[in-house]
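[Primary structure, fold]
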Amino acid sequence: MTAKVKFDEVNVGDELPPQNYHVDRANLVMYAGASGDFNPIHWRESFAKQVGLPDVIAHGMYTMAQAGRYVTDWAGDPGAVVDLGVRFSAPVVVPDEGGADLEVSGKIEDKREDGTVVVALTARSAGQKVLTRAKAVVRLA
């Protein structure tokens, strides 16, 4: 998904191919360092379970960033994303052994006269939708 997509080549209803992103504890530790979010629910299993979580969970913004990465990879230009918004509906649970997989897919929901498209995004992990109302507005070439 690295080719630059052109506005006149997409139509409302077009589905973007799904992409899988593997998430492990090392990713979460690196993200914590970059973001400054060192909440132990993102790296310490005993703490996560103590507060009622099933295991360590990915940062919500890390999950959102993977959705953004999906869109920029598809568009072929990180500067093409005009707006990105999501609601978090479930955490991405990241077990120590094996990590987790996050699958992101998209569908062209609207094609605007200003040269942008609205991409409705779907993100799932362990069979559960982890983002809702996830949409990106993208200015295509």
